[in-house]
Amino acid sequence: MSSRLSGFCAFAMVCLASAAPAAGQSALSGESIHITRASGPIAVDGDLSDQGWRNAARIDKWYETNPGDNTEPQVHNVGYLTYDDKFFYAGFEFDDPDLKAIRAPFADRDNIGNGFNDYGGIIIDPRNTGRTATFFVVTPRNIQYDAVTDDASGEDPSPDFFWESATKITARGWTLEMRIPFSSLRYQNVDPQTWGILLYRNFPRDRHYQFFSAKLPRGGNCFVCRSNTLTGMSQLPAGGHLVAAPYVSASADAHPRDGETGAPLVGDGVKPHVGLDVKYTPNADNAIDLTVKPDFSQVESDTAQISANERFALFFPEKRPFFLEGVDLFQTPIQAVYTRTITAPIWGGRVTGKQGGVRYTALVADDAGGGSAIIPGPNGSSLASVDEGSIVVVGRAKRDVGLSFVGVIATDREAKSGNSHNRVGGPDFQWRPSGTDVVTGQMLYSDTRTPNRPDLAIEWTGQSFVSHGAHVSWNHNTTRFDAFAQYRDFGDGFRADTGFVPQVGSREVIGSTGWTFRPTNFLTRLRTSLIAERQTDRAGALISSDVQPGVGMDTRWNGFMQFRYMDDQGRSGDRTFPTRRFGYIVQFSPSRRVTQLSLNGTTGQEIDYANSRAGTGSTINLQATLNPTNHLNVVLVQNQRWVNVDDRSSVSRRLFIARVSRVRGTYTFSSRLFARGIVEYVSTDRDPSLYTFDTSAKSGSLSGQFLLAYKLNWQSVMFAGYGDDRELTDRDQLVKSGRQVFVKVSYALQR
């Protein structure tokens, strides 16, 4: 690293070491729950009559936190907690007066309907931080969902864990049993243990009801901090768990001969792939991860997004297991780490844990290259092909100070040729001075030397530069009033090649405020809001400004609606254009067969960023999620964006219209076996006479995918897939542009 960057990170580490130790659960936490060891064996079968449940802690005091304000739930809920030498157990009895109203379709793991289906489980904080916890919830059809939630960065469903569950729909409702290995949890090396826990039930009917085992006061600035305090556990396993998950896959691709559109497809032959993920937990609070050639078949299908007339690169989530241990550590106000930039790791090693009150992770990976790098700017970003491998190093440390924290992050990407690099580092913090206020900040410095490849990107001339990025924000919440303020500052030369920062060379100020009312009729929540934002470049020239008054509301039928007026100014090229638009979001979940109907978009004045001129247009995004049977799920997506501009005669004409049409059907035979088919058509129709540069009148692609999957657990899987791609020609014909056949077998070996 550069001397400036190394000195800055060293200073941040001193701050970490000198910070006061974490205080654990605060006075904000809920009632204490004391549990004892199970009095006998427990079979995970959905039946809570086993002897092991007889002396389990019983939790029958629950609170309705939505739409009620910590009121008594309208249905009865009982939870049970116990443990033995290897496992933590949770059992539930959920009453339901109308069994036909239960929303519980079969689905793949983690696909539980975004709050639109019934489910229940626990949110557990084994380190007793009061700020970071893990979701373990299950639907009545035994579909599992796990995620990491952090009061600073929110909920992330990417990580997966080993655990078991079973459910039964009974004459009174449904029951749930959960068994979580202690090896799947990270807890302190102390005896006895003190954890945080919330018992949770999601109950969607005429409204979206939520029940918890602790009170969640409205207007608070934290969620995990409200957990019940869990005591009574002692002599837990000290570690020593090993998981090795080798995989074997094979793919066969075909492409047009000589790359000519419409030419017959030529196969590349079968390409075998072998890889391995290994996780070792030497003790309960630390983990070591190794990987050899992890593959992107572990990444879920990217969602449909329109890129036409977008100024900045689009973000997609990570799903490869190697990158997901302690994933909350990578979440910082400025996204300095975006692990999908490590596109083709040949190998990687990582340690994650806690020492002396400091949580940490350190990662090194040999990236073979490929993919694209983001070239950021003040008005937009572009992509450049990466044709050289690199060594990537990431380090992160974070120390909790009560419900606040201080941290430091550093990344280093070194080209294997030694001719280019990108190094980023600096501290961040979050301070909670009260139960209603949160202050968050981060400062980063970057040291960059670009590749000498102007053929790939204009700025890649081998030049060197250093720069900075800064973020500070304040969030204030009370029962009725909320306010937010944020300032961001990025130098022209700031680069985060291992992160996701698509805009630099800018200063941004954002302020917002809102007032919440809670009616008791069709609406259960009404919030009026005002948002103001202004962005300038480093010279002070306006990039964009925005004023948005609006109103949002929760309704019957699990509904949400938001309407806002958008009075903006935006820059394209060297000109600034005013835009006035109307924005809307409408979303309902009317029944268990029609799980979700949603419509969102904008309409009004637009900016033609490709040609730097004013226009009008609309963006419309439609989605319907249907469950014709408990086994069949169908998702229909239709997204459109168009812009109209004046021609030389001042007559408004259509510049372009871009569409994404997508149908995804999934038939789930059981919680382990499913078949999924996706058909997606992406097209753009343009009027070349309205462009200031040469462009085609039409472009489009049609892709189809079929996947058959069997999952014993999240790392023991069998996949077989087929893909077919077609491209639209100038003659308006769809011709074959690619074909893929794919199989994969992975099995997790545990000791």
| Main sheet: strands, sense, barrel | 24 strands, antiparallel, barrel
Rounded radius of gyration (Å): 27 Å
Give unreliable regions as ranges. Answer: 8-15, 19-25, 298-315
Class of secondary structure makeup: mainly beta
Provide the residue-averaged pLDDT: 90
Outline the secondary-structure elements:
Blueprint: H1 3-18, E1 30-34, E2 57-59, E3 63-66, E4 77-83, E5 87-95, E6 119-125, E7 132-138, E8 144-150, E9 154-156, E10 164-169, E11 173-181, E12 194-204, E13 208-212, E14 228-231, E15 241-256, E16 265-283, E17 286-292, E18 345-355, E19 358-367, E20 372-375, E21 382-385, E22 390-401, E23 404-415, E24 421-431, E25 437-449, E26 464-477, E27 481-490, E28 506-517, E29 523-537, E30 542-555, E31 559-572, E32 575-588, E33 594-608, E34 613-626, E35 632-646, E36 652-668, E37 673-686, E38 698-713, E39 716-728, E40 734-746, E41 749-750
Parallel strand pairs: 1-14
Antiparallel strand pairs: 2-4, 3-13, 4-5, 5-11, 6-7, 6-12, 7-8, 8-9, 10-11, 12-13, 12-14, 15-16, 15-40, 15-41, 16-17, 17-18, 18-19, 19-22, 20-21, 22-23, 23-24, 24-25, 25-26, 26-27, 27-28, 28-29, 29-30, 30-31, 31-32, 32-33, 33-34, 34-35, 35-36, 36-37, 37-38, 38-39, 39-40
